[in-house]
From TrEMBL:
Residues that span the membrane, as ranges: 28-47, 59-81, 142-161, 168-187, 214-236, 257-285, 305-327, 357-376, 396-418, 430-452, 458-478
PANTHER family on file: AMINO ACID TRANSPORTER-RELATED, MEMBRANE PROTEIN
Membrane topology listed for this record: Multi-pass membrane protein
Main location: membrane
Record's keyword annotation contains Transmembrane: yes
Gene3D superfamilies xref list: Amino acid/polyamine transporter I (1.20.1740.10)
Protein keywords: Cell membrane, Membrane, Transmembrane, Transmembrane helix
Protein name: Amino acid permease
Pfam families in the record: AA_permease_2
Top-level division of the source organism's lineage: Bacteria
Amino acid sequence: MAGKTQAGGIAYATRDNSYFEQRRLKRYAGVWSLWALSVGAVISGHFSGWNLGFAMGGWGGMAVAAVIIGVMYLGLTLCIAEMSPALPHTGAAYSFARTAMGPWGGFVTGLFENVEYVLTPAVVVTFISSYFSAIVGLDAVWLPLVWVAFYGIFLGLNIFGVALSFRVTLVVTLASLLVLAVFWISALPNMDFGRWALNIGADGSELPLGHGPLFPFGIAGIFASLPFAVWLFLAIEQLPLAAEESVDPRRDMPRGILLGMGTLVISAFLIVLLNPSVIGVGAYGLGRSGEPLLDGFRAIYGDGWAVLLGLVAMLGLIASFHAILFAQGRQIYSLSRAGYFPSALSVTHRRHKTPHVAMIGGALLGLCVMLTIWFANGGGGEAPTQLGDDIIGTVLLNMAVFGAMLSYIMQAVSFILLRRNRASIARPFRSPLGIGGAALTIIIATITLGFQLQDPNFFRGVIWVVVWCAIGIAYFGLVGRHRLILSPEEEFALAQGVD
């Protein structure tokens, strides 16, 4: 420790080179690695999770919700495309908010994002276990062992080298898109939109002959579907967490995230249109399904191919699980390196230079949350394997979405403040939507939060996010703010005159 300096009631400690040498990352990623990371983190949402919106809004409600959420993410990604090369630090959302709003704003934004990145892998691994159990007929009581096994395998791949991690991400992302492309091509000659996509009645019942209303639950169904439409794009915003592992973040970060957003928009349109339209599937069934893509493949190719098709369909879930574990580790690492979280979490692997302590710590926390909810709901039996029940649809998934929405609002606010108050920061890319795009992101994210709070099922998950954040804020107020460290993000913010 070389000394202390006070800024706005925050105590900073400078560290010698050995501190940062123990926390060094390795640059590897080019634009296509970044594209794969952005798409890979999201793509599981095109395999599972999004479809639960049909039960809330029917096909029309879910489709309009997807468009609204797509607009929100376009505004958000353009904001990030501007901020990430201007502030090319691993901290991402925390770094943006730290420079725009000071230490408290940075920490609270990082805490909201932490909720998302700890819980999103937990949601995805539960989707994986649902597919896996459907393939092999595994009894639900053994599902926690499946969770632990997948965490262990993909933590290992993430820890043993950034090059390996990005290569795995690229391969599984390309494979996932290939699986989706095969499904889209297969679905086109096997679809009947009116009969199957419109098979939900105004009372929520299944219509045997289809051709029901486009919006069976009216405008309210659109808003109720918003949290599930989020799953079509959730986690693309994690890309700036790879800034310090990008070869040229100022050039490649905007390209990677915008190429990723374009890819996801095309995929989202096709999956929302085709999956419920397949003959023998339907929106009603998908609104209660844990493996919607597998349902579509089964309807087209028959049950005889179920095992092979199920294994293929798991690729998208694996791609996201791997990519979001990457993001989870970097997010915890960045807050820890700066002292907001205990600094021991930011130590990197001596040989591979990956934040292994942060990744293991985040994984253990996610597993603890999963197991707590699992046993609180009785564990075992058939109920926990249903993605529409309390174990996922109303707890983990909505906790992750709630944390994400709060993070998006804070990032969009950061963008507006940086545009107004820090015009001198060099910006290699400027959002064509400017402050208006950021404001639209805030409005849509706030509406999504509002409808989560109104649903009593979602509200239970929200309460736990509030508890999570309250514990984090109490820690920072009592301990963390007295132990901050002049990391690159902090030095950049202080150089801009932000206390």
